[in-house]
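About this split. The held-out portion is used to measure sequence recovery: a designer receives only the structure tokens and must propose an amino acid at every position. Recovery is the fraction of positions where the proposal matches the reference. Here is one held-out target exactly as it appears in the evaluation file.
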């Protein structure tokens, strides 16, 4: 048993179904062939009738017992063992590829096999064949599979795959039968969901929160969307419980109004404190500005960032900050902890955050917000670990036209840029690199900077390594006409006058990133444009992107095109790679697996 534990560790196996899902890559079949099939591996009974050595090679002639025909074989790497094995008069079961030459049957270097009538699965793992085979034999049993919650069809399928009686039982045209693949998809989803469920631990909450959101909602200069209201109601239910601290992830598309959900949650927490952590000081600052603008005046708000604080965080009802919060020794305990764009924090920072959300026995309510839409299938899976809310609509109709353009469209682009600036609108141009590179067939930020600065006024430039990037973005927001940047501006700073974005070398970016960038324009309902500048504009992926506006559909497209060598940007955070399950297509399989888990 101890030995098996070590082997499981080596295989990174945590559940019985993990082991059952290690599927054979091929099979070694020693069932006797009933007919002679040329060009294929045959297993035949044969008797040696002649053997001779020719130029160091051993030539053996066999008499095939069943068909009565003769077959000659040549052995190239010959050892004394071969001579002894294939002595005239000995009987064998030989296996090898059967060929015919001028009417004579031939088989090059056949193997003499001892055990016939057996199909042996071949596994490709870090273990020796014999080790993995004995683990499978020991643990993958009907009884164990039933105990895992599988039904009789699923159990039978896995047993057939690991212990086939014949190849026809498993294979159809050289690969697994379609209904076997359907079962493997289900088992993969079911196993993953079970593991997630096992990780879910509930703690009692520090406090039940019942703050009134009316004073906030009634003073908003706009009406909340139905989806915003639904999410807010779900959070109200979460926060009102004392027996269970909330754990909810709110995924909203770019510009879907997540900030209002955050602010409503702050109101629910009153008179107790809430904390919000954001990955960049720019995001923290923006959330602070919006909180000051929309929350009732009597709510005391503080901002904590490296090198500068606003307001007194010891007294505040609502503390907004970057990871600088984690280094404050005297941070007051909050009953509600929120994190924006959690996936942008490192694992260490997330752990410190958990500690900040501390309390040994009781935990604060915990909400995380993300603007990276995930495929619905993934949302269904994540919901085994925490509650998930999706906001798929935007508060106002965004009219953003997306087009692919290339070199010959450049003069028209320049005209369009001038028109937008004339209307006091702003333009953003995204370059793939800061400096020139032989790898990338596009101009870099530095190379093209001179062109724009010569032709236009108020041109601002920033990129990831720019120490001043926050100041540049804030100054551009007030005074700029054109901003040249690399993908750093993906971070959600709101630029209300931005109506035109050009993404250079768009085919090099993942669709989720393109969608985030496109989300920078048209934030206030102004008619806007997103131009994807590419040397190969007839790109199927970009064409489909132009026709898709909803981030959740984009996430699905990203999966569809994932294998075409895209630069993928962590949309699937858990790093879970499924072998059979397709996150884009198999929503119904995951739904079935979830139902099965609810019953079990």
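Reference sequence for scoring:
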């Amino acid at each position: 048993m101890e030995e098996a534990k070590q082997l499981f560790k080596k295989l990174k196996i945590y559940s019985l179904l993990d082991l059952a899902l290690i599927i054979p890559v091929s099979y070694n079949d020693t069932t006797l062939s009933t007919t002679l099939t040329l060009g294929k591996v045959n297993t035949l009974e044969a008797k040696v009738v002649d053997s001779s050595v020719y130029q160091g090679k051993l030539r053996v002639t066999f008499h095939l017992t069943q068909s009565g025909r003769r077959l000659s074989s040549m052995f190239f790497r010959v050892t004394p063992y071969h001579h002894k094995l294939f002595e005239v008069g000995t009987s064998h079961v030989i296996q090898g590829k059967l060929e015919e030459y001028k009417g004579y049957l031939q088989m090059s270097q056949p193997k003499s096999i001892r055990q016939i009538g057996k199909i042996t699965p071949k596994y490709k793992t870090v273990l020796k064949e014999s080790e993995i085979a004995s683990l499978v034999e020991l643990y993958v049993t009907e009884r164990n599979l039933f105990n895992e919650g599988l039904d009789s069809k699923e159990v039978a399928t896995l047993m057939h795959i690991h212990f086939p009686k014949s190849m026809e039982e498993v294979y159809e045209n050289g690969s697994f039968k379609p209904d076997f693949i359907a079962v493997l998809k289900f088992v993969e989803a079911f196993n993953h969901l079970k593991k997630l469920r096992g990780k879910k631990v509930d703690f009692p909450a520090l406090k039940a929160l019942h703050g009134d959101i009316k004073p906030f909602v009634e003073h908003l200069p706009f009406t909340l969307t139905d989806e915003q209201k639904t999410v807010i109601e779900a959070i109200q239910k979460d926060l009102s419980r004392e027996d269970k601290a909330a754990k909810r992830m709110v995924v909203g598309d770019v510009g879907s109004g997540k900030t209002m959900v955050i602010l409503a949650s702050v109101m629910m927490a009153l008179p107790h404190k809430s904390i919000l952590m954001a990955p960049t000081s720019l995001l923290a600052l923006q959330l602070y500005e919006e909180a000051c603008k929309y929350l009732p005046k009597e709510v005391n708000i503080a901002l904590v960032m490296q090198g500068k604080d606003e307001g007194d965080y010891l007294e505040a009802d609502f503390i907004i900050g970057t990871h600088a919060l984690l280094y404050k020794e005297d941070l007051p305990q909050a009953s509600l902890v929120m994190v924006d764009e959690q996936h942008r924090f490192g694992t260490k920072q997330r752990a410190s955050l958990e500690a900040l959300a501390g309390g040994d026995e009781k935990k604060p309510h915990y909400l995380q917000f993300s603007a990276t839409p995930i495929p619905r299938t993934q949302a269904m899976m994540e919901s085994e670990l925490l509650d998930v809310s999706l906001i798929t609509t935007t508060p106002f109709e965004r009219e953003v036209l997306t087009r692919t353009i290339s070199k010959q469209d450049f003069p028209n682009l320049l005209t369009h840029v001038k028109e937008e600036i004339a209307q006091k609108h702003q333009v953003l141009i995204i370059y793939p690199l800061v400096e020139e590179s032989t790898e990338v067939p596009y101009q870099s930020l530095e190379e093209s900077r001179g062109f724009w600065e010569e032709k236009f006024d108020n041109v601002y430039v920033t990129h990831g390594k720019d120490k001043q990037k926050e100041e540049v973005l804030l100054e551009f927001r007030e005074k700029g006409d054109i901003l040249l940047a690399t993908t750093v501006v993906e971070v959600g700073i709101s630029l209300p006058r931005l109506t035109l974005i050009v993404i250079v070398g768009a085919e090099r970016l993942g669709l989720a990133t393109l969608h985030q960038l496109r989300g920078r324009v048209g934030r206030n309902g102004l008619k806007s444009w997103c131009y994807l500048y590419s040397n190969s504009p007839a790109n199927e992926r970009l064409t489909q992107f132009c026709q898709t506006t909803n981030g959740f559909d984009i996430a699905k497209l990203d999966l569809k095109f994932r294998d075409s060598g895209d630069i993928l940007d962590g949309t699937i955070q858990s790093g879970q790679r499924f072998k059979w399950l397709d996150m884009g297509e198999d929503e119904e399989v995951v739904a079935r697996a979830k139902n099965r888990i609810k019953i079990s």
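Annotator remark: The CA atoms of residues 81 and 87 lie 10 Å apart.
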